[in-house]
Design goal:
Layout: H1 3-17, E1 24-28, E2 31-36, E3 46-52, H2 63-71, E4 75-79, H3 113-128, E5 136-146, H4 148-159, E6 168-174, H5 179-184, E7 194-199, H6 206-210, H7 215-218, E8 223-228, H8 245-260, H9 265-268, E9 275-282, E10 285-287
Parallel strand pairs: 3-4, 3-5, 5-6, 6-7, 7-8
Antiparallel strand pairs: 1-2, 2-4, 8-9, 9-10
Length: about 290
């Protein structure tokens, strides 16, 4: 992505961040965190979702999704990682990544390890936090991430063995950067059900997800892959232009089924309008 285009994206995300004010900004374990709490919070224990933003994104970059998850009965928490640039992030969009995205062969478990540390530290602190600890069901935790956030949550789910976070019920990877894992064949180490989402216009990432011996093929079941017609890389953010109904339907159904235990299986095996490709291999059946 050119610097000019990245600047436009960051500015748009900053505008989107202030478009609504339903979420809470918190400081947890030294992290700037955005939280979305459903109306039922404080009355019953609820499943928990941790969301990881994309490179140079920010915690509320995908409010349409995080708000929907909260409305559906999840406690949702998203930290601003060190590379966050919008919503008061400390980084600059001029900052270059220490790890080159065009050279995935050079990536190791050290690559963006700070993101794994953020999520691990946040989860541990939330359990002990008097504001949230009593209301979260810490036996039902799911991870969601977009782009580099998808890389981060996959790493915690076992794609980097040294990162593995025990007890994760499911990982939802939205246009995730997976090339380092594919090259090293480490996705076989995933310890939780996974859903990958991609788009026909997401030319930089989606081909790695669905190609032969790509991310989906290398992952153990239960696994799902949904590709949305016309969706580009930013379809999973608030500035995305693709229809969001399908993204929300499959995301919520997947997390309901594997994290909350509410069902959702019928949605996971049905190809909705606007879906270019649906694959799955799980207890619900197989479709390739």
């Amino acid at each position: 992505m050119t610097r000019w285009r990245r600047a436009v994206v960051v500015l748009a995300l900053c505008w989107a961040s202030v478009a609504h004010a339903s979420e809470q900004r918190l400081s947890v374990a030294g992290l700037a965190v955005t939280a979305w709490l459903p109306p039922a919070a404080g009355r019953t224990r609820l499943p928990v979702i941790l969301f990881s933003h994309g490179f140079h994104g920010c915690a509320p970059q995908s409010r349409f999704l995080t708000e929907a998850l909260a409305a559906h009965g999840y406690l949702v928490f998203a930290p601003d990682h060190r590379d966050a640039t919008c919503h008061g992030g400390r980084a600059s969009w001029f900052d270059r990544s220490e790890w080159r995205f065009v050279a995935p062969q050079s990536w190791t478990e050290a690559s963006f390890h700070d993101r794994a540390d953020d999520l691990r530290r946040l989860l541990a602190a939330l359990r002990e936090d008097s504001r949230f600890g009593p209301w979260g069901d810490w036996s039902r935790v799911g991870l969601v991430g977009h782009s580099l956030g998808g890389y981060s949550v996959l790493g915690l789910a076992g794609a980097w063995p040294g990162w593995t976070l025990p007890g994760i019920k499911a990982v939802l990877a939205l246009s995730p950067y997976t090339q380092p894992f594919v090259l090293r064949h480490t996705l076989a180490g995933l310890t939780a059900p996974v859903m990958y989402q991609g788009g026909t216009r997401d030319l930089g990432i989606t081909p790695t997800l669905h190609k032969s011996l790509g991310s989906y093929d290398q992952s153990p079941p239960p696994k799902y892959y949904v590709e949305f017609d016309g969706a580009g890389h930013f379809a999973w953010t608030d500035i995305g232009l693709a229809p969001r109904d399908g993204i929300l339907a499959y995301s919520i159904a997947f997390l309901d089924h594997y994290v909350a235990g509410r069902g959702g299986g019928a949605v996971l095996t049905r190809e909705r309008p606007g879906v270019a490709l649906l694959r799955y291999d799980s207890e619900l059946g197989r479709r390739d």
